[in-house]
Give the backbone structure.
Amino acid sequence: MTTDEGFTRVIKRTRGLPHRIATSFGVLGFAIMGWGSCAWGQVVPTAQTPSLLTLVTTYTAEGIYAYNALDFAAASANDAAYKDLLPICATPAGAGASAPTAPAGTACTGATLQLYNQLRALEDNANELLGRGEITYSLRLSPSALASALQWTAPEEFAAQGSMTTQFANSQATVLRNRFDALHFAAMATRMANNLDDPSSAAWAAAYHVLGGAAGADSTSVTLGRFSAFVNYGFGAGDKNPTVFEDAFNFDSTEASAGLDYRINDRLVVGLLAGHSERRVDFNSEESIVNGQIRGNGQSATLYVQYEAGAGYVDGSAGQQHMTLNTVRKITYPSNNPLVPSVNDTALSDAGANTTMVTLAAGYVFHYHGASMEPYLNGQYTHTIIGSFVESNTNGFDTLVSSQSILSSEAIGGLKFQYAFLNRFGVIVPYIYGEYHHQFSPTSRTVASTYAADTSPSAGFDIPTDALPGHYYVAGAGGSLVLTHGLQAYAQYARVLDYTNYSSHVFSCGFRWEF
């Protein structure tokens, strides 16, 4: 017999008594029955069981409150950790105590005990909303406020690390593309700038051959410097819209690159590019339940080669990049229970990311006098490994994040138009271009993590990232200026279009000297 059944029977048996007496008698009988059952061990108080996933499932199914997929993921991970810690931490506290007393001789101390306290408050809050179980240490939050608390515990911010490393690889690919363009133009532009006073010379004819004219018979007498050095600077900025599993953020970057190449003969050039990048992500707390930042510091080295055969060319490169990622992640939510303090923690972490990048491109330049049109194809492969790391500095909420593997395989089709203007101080070449990018590896990846204080985790946070877009576009415009003595400068502005949930643009400029 349950205590509810006993209460009902007592009331029925006292139906002839006055209402107040009947009620008092029933309550007394219920109390006696409950005491007797407990004394004999027949009725056990409600056990402490994980309730967060039950809450979000029940409330969502019944239309009370619509929890999203990140809430479900956080509830599942917190339930698993709470279940792991219950055997070593679930000793009831004394009356009025604000924290449990750890069983003697157990590992429930320090960060483990802190994590247990935090999770117990969330679980008791779920019990309170479900109307069951232990609620002593409930945060006393509403369903929507509890959803926010769950999202604060989830480390979905780490998805942005992959975006930062991918952008670094793409920026280096853009620098290389600009370098190859300069090499294509170098044979013509340097000769033009050095022979302004004699447009009928063989040097003019050889230069004009690149622009669409016919080369003179003795144009091979014109030689190019075998070495050239270059420097490049770039600045980019943009923002990301929020999705269920990824936060909104603003980002920017500054980048400096330098390189040296050697012309083996009129057709073949080899070179080395080195780059340094500073990247910043600031999470947007106005659009997502998030607060924090990521700072990236990266270096790269790339070997490249170019082969030219008349108006056609083939370019290739292979390189390595390393980036250090420093993340600040806030976990903050209130408590309306005087027994339980509000949470206001800051988790700190450092991670290392290594990227391998390989590119292969081919194109052909069609000329008509000073105008040219250049269709090209480019393949770009990148593989990034972000090493595992552990957060620090919180009261139990530090996470152990597993390593991440990020693959990207892109095919790029582009078309560039340019026109060369000859004047008294050099050659000016304005240009515009457009590219279509197709992604062959658009699948989502999973950022897996567990609470560091849960030393034997049965499960954790498995948060999927947004898939890379299947395709997007890049449009840009710029210009080159070629002066005498092998000097060349350029500036370019490019914007990424139709890249799902992202908006970004990049300005870059550089100098080259042939010697």
Summary: The longest strand covers residues 312-333. Residues 55 and 130 are 7 Å apart (CA to CA). The chain has a mean pLDDT of 82. The longest helix spans residues 159-194.
